[in-house]
Amino acid sequence: MTDLVLLHAFPVNRHLWDEQVEYLTKAGRRVLAPDIAGFGDSQVPQEATMLALSEQVLTQVGRPAVFAGLSMGGYVLMEILRRHPEMVTGAIFMDTKASADTAQARAQRLQVADAVLAAGNTRDLAEAMLPKLLGDTTRAQNPGVVEQVRTWIEAAPPEAVAAAQRAMADRPDSVPTLRSYEGPALVVWGAQDTISPHADQQVMLGAMPQAVAREIPEAGHLSAVEQPSAINDVLLEVLSDWQ
Ligand code: MLT
User: Which of 10, 41, 150, 209 is most buried, most CB within 10 Å of its CB?
Assistant: First the structure.
């Protein structure tokens, strides 16, 4: 049975996966949820590139595994597939997208990087991102999750946020990478996700005809914390099918 490696979104940390780690570990799986460089307990990367973020993950993993990446975690997984496909025995893309940034999105990221460094904190970033990260249902019905995500974002060091934004701004189009990947794949997204909406999922599914597709009702972009039971079930289902 191979390990499952869970790669978190921007700008939170490995605790995004606490419910999945607990559930899947109890189900007998070996699960790793590393912090992506700069977040949680990890060091800010020396270079603001997807390569640096992916290498920092791979040094902690050490052997082939099934990888699941949510949003930025999905971009890291795409970089691993590009550079070290031999490390990936199964690929799970959650609330993410394969396309590169538009010029406008890229400029916006560089502005955010400069703004958080100038502010010296991520409070304004949290305020701006929460309505986009979480779906309508969570924001209306689950204040505990809203406050938890706010706490994670406010704990993110500005230097980590800036490095991740610069790395994401420079990431290439990953559609060719997904087209050349022939292993087992799952594409899963929150029905209320406006950051990586349905059209982005269709592009990934078009590039990987073998992929299983799952839409999670009443979840936005951070599906793992918005509907943890549904995500736990779908992860266990595909892991059982793949191994
Ligand atoms: C994330 O959740 O990781 C971010 O929304 C990714 C992005 O900014 O593209």
Answer: 10
Give the residue ranges of DSSP H helices in 121-197: 123-133, 136-141, 143-155, 158-169, 175-180
Q: Per the structure block, which two tokens stand in for 148?
A: 């938890």
Q: Which DSSP letter does residue 217 get?
A: T
> Which amino acid residue places its CA nearest to atom 4 of ligand 1?
10
The answer to whether the beta carbons of residues 73 and 132 sit under 8 Å apart is no
Task: Tell me the backbone φ, ψ of residue 62, rounded to 5 degrees.
Answer: 80, -20
Distance, in Å, from the CA atom of 88 to the CA atom of 4, rounded to the nearest integer, reads: 10
Q: How far is CA 175 from CA 100, 119, 153, in A?
A: 9, 36, 29
For the Cβ of 196 lying below 6 angstroms from any atom of ligand 1, the answer is no
The residues, any chain, with a CB within 8 Å of residue 74's CB and separated by 6 or more, are 7, 93, 94, 95, 96, 97
pLDDT, tens digit, 9 for 90 and up, residues 114-164? 999 999 999 999 999 999 999 999 999 999 999 999 999 999 999 999 999
The closest-lying atom of ligand 1 relative to the alpha carbon of residue 165 is 8
Pocket flag, ligand 1, residue 152 (CB < 6 Å): no
What pLDDT digit, counting tens, does each position of 172-186 carry? 999 999 999 999 999
Neighbour count for residue 60 (Cβ, 10 Å): 11
Task: Say how far residue 32 (Cα) sits from the centre of its chain.
Answer: 14
Which residue minimizes the CA distance to atom 7 of ligand 1? 72
Query: Is the distance from the beta carbon of residue 238 to the nearest atom of ligand 1 less than 6 Å?
Result: no
